[in-house]
Amino acid sequence: MPIPRVAFLSFFGLGALGVLLAVARQPQTSEAAKFPSSYVDAKGAISLPSDYRLKWTHLGSWSVTEEGGGIGLHDVYAQPDAVTSFINDGKWPDGATIVKEVRGGHEAKLTTGQARWDGEIKVWFVMVKDAKNSFPDNPNWGRGWGWALYNKSDPTKNVSTNYKLDCIACHVPAQETDWIYLRGYPTLNEKAGPFGTYPATTYQPADAAK
Asked: Which of 45, 51, 103, 129 has the most neighbouring CB atoms within 10 Å?
């Protein structure tokens, strides 16, 4: 029995409408949505990794004398695959994440000599590589990186409001090495391994090497 013309058109119209609605519900793809990091959401919000001490590569440590004479001990970590990529070609891949853990320090004369050791965590700094400018409207992204700062009181909240105000100033001396102080990280510099012989300048600031 032939379908009446009006019924056919109504059926066809409903079918087309269904297709259009289905397409409309499809998730929209963008550079931000495809960003290669599980620590970054579609809007560029950065979360603090929780497993960096157990599963990531330790790049190096800093001992800093803080204002007032206190001690700051900074340990820096990155994902193993990102480290391998950097060692191979000298560049951080997009999504590479670097965590700096800042702790207070203790100091005393022990049997080993005048010693300093880790105290409680104070803050974390996080940088996420982004060469494609994936989040141009997010003030915590720029200069090829995403920037974040977390206080011990709330590790879930990035307290940086704008990387230009809260982060970049400390990294200006490292601008020529993609804003990272490479001389402080023997894991990256000692490409032939810890038993290799390296010039002293590998571990010194550029001005000290002159």
From this structure: 129
Report yes or no: 97 and 128 within 8 Å, Cβ to Cβ.
yes
Domain count, the chain: 1
Helix (H) or strand (E) holding 166: helix 163-166
CATH of the domain at 80: 3.50.70.20
pLDDT in tens, 9-54: 443 344 444 443 444 444 444 555 689 999 999 999 999 999 999 9
Task: Give the range of the structural domain holding residue 98, as residue numbers without chain letter.
Answer: 35-195
Smallest CA-to-CA distance from 43 within 144, 158, 135 is with 135
Q: Please state the φ and ψ torsions of residue 201, each to the nearest 5 degrees.
A: -65, -20
161, part of any domain: yes
In a domain, 9, yes or no: no
CA angle 77, 81, 86 (to 5 degrees): 80
* Residue 32 confidence (pLDDT): 55
